[in-house]
Amino acid sequence: MKSILSTKRLTPSQKNLILGAGFSVVEYDAIDIEFADFKLPQRLEHLIFTSKNAVKAFLNKIRETKAVNNSIRNTERLLSAPDNSEVENYKCFCIGPKTETLLVNNGFKVIKSALNAKELAYFITQKYNKEHFSFFCGASRRVELPQILKEYSVSFEEIIVYNTLLKSMSFKQQFDALLFFSPSGIQSFIANNQLKNTLAVCIGSTTAAEAQKHTVNFTIANDTTIESVIARAVKALNKQTLD
User: The Tetrapyrrole biosynthesis uroporphyrinogen III synthase domain covers which part of the protein (predicted)?
Assistant: First the structure.
């Protein structure tokens, strides 16, 4: 039986997509997220999020700030503690459908959801180049988006809201496919393992660029979802069986 290693823990329904195809699956979290200590800008209007983790960190900070604000007896509202009506007025720009869904479910208005950082950056430079942006991101964020914004003189401030922690594990088993969901996930895996001839299935082009540093045996999912990564792996392994 062919085997698949997922570098992110899967839901029961996601695991069943693999098991139902006749493959075994091992799963673990190759990375962990730690919220950073940061301050919300006083000026919040156009917000950029490149991941769900950035949105989660932002929401967590809003809740923290509101809790502190509610403990203050005077009635002056802190500018950095937006209320629900203000949230509805934010204009959000993000990457990926899951990030967009998280924003929408929390009452935010999403102006643009792009497939990758370059697409989002060029959209902003073409449509909103006169606005000021707050870019919420992780400490290990890629350089494409801020580089492009700087090249086109778009005003923005970058706020580091979370750190990525690598959780490396060593595997003696040789897998037929590896599921990767971020460049950090690949870095975590190769710290104690080798890709060798195993197929690396990547969630997007950014993750694939990291995989390409270590192997030529990689493929990219059709969409930036876990289900799409699984579907790509199943299709590739089934093709190997037929060949």
Answer: 18-230
pLDDT digits (tens, 9 = 90+) for 149-186: 999 999 999 999 999 999 999 999 999 999 999 999 99
Q: Where are the beta strands (DSSP E) in 50-208?
A: 91-95, 109-114, 132-138, 155-166, 177-180, 199-202
The whole domain housing 16 covers 3-30+168-242
- Classified as helix, coil or strand, 176 is coil
Q: What is the pLDDT of residues 22-32, one digit of tens each?
A: 999 999 999 99
Residues 97 and 160 in one domain: yes
Is 226 in the same domain as 159? no
pLDDT tens-digit readout, 193-233: 998 889 999 998 889 999 999 999 999 999 888 999 999 99
How many domains would you assign to the chain?
2
| Buried b / exposed e along 196-229 (16+ C-beta atoms within 10 A) | eebbbbbbbebbbebbeebbeebbbbebbbbebb
DSSP state of 153: T
Do 50 and 128 belong to one domain?
yes
- Distance of alpha carbon 34 from alpha carbon 26, whole angstroms: 24
Residues 26, 122 within the same domain: no
Tally of CB atoms within 10 A around 16? 13
Rounded to whole angstroms, the Cα distance separating 20 from 52 reads: 28
Instruction: Based on DSSP, count helices (H) and strands (E) in the chain, helices before strands.
Output: 9, 11
